[in-house]
Write a structure and sequence with these properties.
The protein is of the alpha+beta class. The protein has one domain. α1 runs antiparallel to α2. The chain is globular and about 50 Å long.
Length: 149
């Protein structure tokens, strides 16, 4: 998205009137190609997206997704576990298997090789929509957080 921005992968869950949209981030403003960092989750309500995929899940899968979110990795590593890895993992817990394409970027001092929002977005855009899933290739904004829990 935009000049010098690589995009972002985030997830949303909704149960009845409760809705949350979260993304996985490093705990400092700049992700490092050199070393791992502590991680944190942020509210991604109203965040722009260019492609999305969703699926209805049963109560057991919802519990799996919530447990996955509650026990998110405390380490953010741009090459090995970043926002796209988090999104792919959450989708798997909900029974939605997404492609795990690895992209790379070779810089003068450091190299990146890992999953990333651009490749994941293109993979979702190009994949066959699984039975029961809904895919959108029209950009929009994530819904706002609603409901209490």
């Amino acid at each position: 998205m935009g000049e010098n921005s690589v995009g972002h992968t985030f997830i949303g869950i909704q149960q009845g009137t409760i809705q949350r949209v979260v993304g996985f981030y490093p705990d400092s403003p700049n992700a490092s190609l050199i070393s791992s960092q502590n991680s944190e989750l942020h509210d991604n309500s109203n965040t722009l997206y260019h492609v999305s995929i969703s699926v209805e899940i049963d109560a057991a899968k919802l519990v799996n997704v919530i447990n996955y979110i509650d026990n998110y990795s405390k380490t953010y590593d741009l090459n090995n576990y970043n926002c796209s890895d988090f999104g792919i993992g959450a989708a798997e817990k909900g029974g939605l298997n997404l492609p795990k394409t690895t992209g790379s970027y070779n810089a003068v001092i450091v190299n990146f090789k890992g999953r990333n929002p651009g490749d994941l977005g293109q993979d979702i855009r190009n994949m066959n929509t699984p039975n029961g899933a809904i895919k959108s290739t029209t950009k929009g904004n994530a819904p706002k957080k609603k409901g209490g829990c």
